[in-house]
Specification:
Layout (H helix, E strand, L loop, with lengths): L11 H11 L6 E2 L16 H13 L12 H12 L4 H4 L3 E6 L1 H16 L4 E6 L5 H6 L4 E6 L1 E2 L4 E2 L1 H8 L7 E5 L12 H14 L2 E6 L8 H4 L1 H9 L3 E6 L12 E6 L3 H18 L6 H10 L3 H30 L7 H4 L4 E3 L4 H11 L1 E2 L5 E3 L8 H12 L1
Parallel strand pairs: 1-12, 3-4, 3-7, 7-8, 8-9
Antiparallel strand pairs: 2-10, 5-6, 9-10, 11-13
Helix pairs in contact: 2-12, 2-13, 3-12, 5-11, 8-10, 13-16, 15-16
The structure holds (2S)-2-hydroxybutanedioic acid.
The site of (2S)-2-hydroxybutanedioic acid has 6 residues, from loops.
Length: 396
């Protein structure tokens, strides 16, 4: 049966991770996969996570099943973390939250819910978007199309082109939006632009599907959640896919959630009933350990510590952005890398071609995806000069 299967190329991001691990050169720099790293190049377990984990282990009395919707305390806490305490959609009983195996699981759940409700719906994703959005969403059977997003001349959002494209979509089209820290470009919308997106969505009767995977790593917990808070306050329906991988550093534990906003409480219950049925058919139940940790942190005094640690991570990324832009400007005076400072979150597009990316990898042991996306958090104060000099040599 399997003799006709071709050997597939590795995943563009995870393949890079494996190639980096196999490289034995001591100068190697990993700007590939989007994980936070400290000055020692490690991805540490956050102190708040360690403390909550100890607490979970000490107090857990059973390993029996939880439920397809996951940990109820986690779901409630994540709803409030993303939408903010006292959000009208929460107090109005129109939001349901389902724990998912990571942000990926949440995206797939959302896509499957859309497919159940409107099998012919088309999902529009930004061009470019995170590579894994494509298999995650289209795997549900939905058709994917693109809308323009990035302006390579400015390193910002091609806002007019984006709005022009969205303004001709048929009603009930789905628009996948990155709440903040756009992956892969780091180019985000401003608050006023989000308000314009809201009016357009309302006017054209579109469904926003918001991906929030970096809350707290861009401008702050509230700032990074501006879009889902606004859209869920003003619109009848929305979906929000949440990841706790980066802001809690829980990558391998697979912790995420899907928020679904409906027009009424009864419709919200119906959506929830579909979500638990979909979850049961896909993986039965999400893993509990990471969600139990997040629930402990958000529901205890550990929250303050977690917020402090998160703020330090955010501050480090911002400092690295400034330092990288300065170092690149010094060795490549004919190129403008100022966009690195203006962009937010873990990623920036360097804006160099595929051959230069390959030379960086093969000759200088600097790893980034082919589109020249760099994980800013993979830089270190001690290797920024090496990185900048390598870029200068690779672009010639
Ligand atoms: C990334 O974009 O590098 C991260 O979100 C990790 C992944 O799974 O691709």
């Amino acid at each position: 049966m399997f003799e006709h299967l071709d050997l597939l190329a590795p995943d563009p991001i995870l393949g890079l991770m494996a190639a980096f691990r196999a490289d034995s050169d001591p100068r190697k720099v990993d700007l590939g996969v989007g994980v936070y790293r400290d000055e020692g190049g490690e991805t540490p377990v956050m102190q708040a996570v360690r403390a909550a984990e100890r607490d979970v282990l000490e107090h857990q009395t059973t390993k029996t099943y939880v439920a397809p919707a996951g940990n109820a305390a986690f779901n409630e806490a994540v709803g409030r973390l993303v939408l903010g305490e006292g959000h009208a959609a929460l107090s109005g009983g129109r939001v349901r939250v389902v724990q998912a195996p990571g942000g990926c699981g949440a995206l797939r759940l959302g896509a499957e819910l859309i497919r159940a409700a409107a099998p012919n719906a088309v999902v529009y994703v930004s061009s470019p978007t995170w590579a894994n959005h494509v298999p995650l969403l289209s795997g549900s059977g939905l058709v994917l199309e693109r809308y323009p997003y990035f302006d390579s001349a400015t390193g910002g959002v091609a806002f007019d082109a984006m709005m022009g494209a969205l303004d001709v979509l048929p009603p009930r089209s789905v628009v996948l939006l990155h709440a903040s820290c756009h992956n892969p470009t780091g180019a985000d919308l401003g608050e006023d632009q989000w308000r314009q997106v809201l009016s357009l969505i309302r006017r054209r009767g579109l469904l926003p599907f918001v991906d929030i995977a970096y809350q707290g790593l861009g401008g702050g917990l509230a700032e990074d959640a501006f879009a889902p808070r606004l859209l869920c306050a003003e619109l009848p329906e929305a979906l929000v896919a949440v990841s706790c991988s980066k802001n809690f550093g829980l990558y391998r534990e697979r912790v995420g959630a899907l928020l679904s906003l409906s027009q009424t409480g009864a419709q919200a219950d119906a959506a929830l009933s579909h979500l638990v049925r979909i979850a049961r058919g896909l993986y039965s139940m999400p893993p509990d350990h990471g969600a139990a940790i997040v629930a402990r942190i958000l529901g205890s005094g550990l929250r303050e510590q977690w917020e402090r640690e998160l703020a330090a991570m955010r501050g480090r990324i911002l400092a690295l952005r400034a330092e990288a832009a300065r170092a690149l400007a010094a060795v490549c005076p004919h190129r403008d890398f100022g966009h690195i400072v203006r962009q937010r979150g873990m990623f920036s597009y360097l804006g160099i071609d595929k051959d230069a990316v390959r030379r960086l990898r093969e000759q200088h042991h600097v790893y980034m995806t082919d589109d020249s996306r760099i994980n800013i958090a993979g830089l270190r104060h001690e290797n920024i000069a090496y990185f900048a000099a390598a870029v200068a040599k690779a672009i010639g």
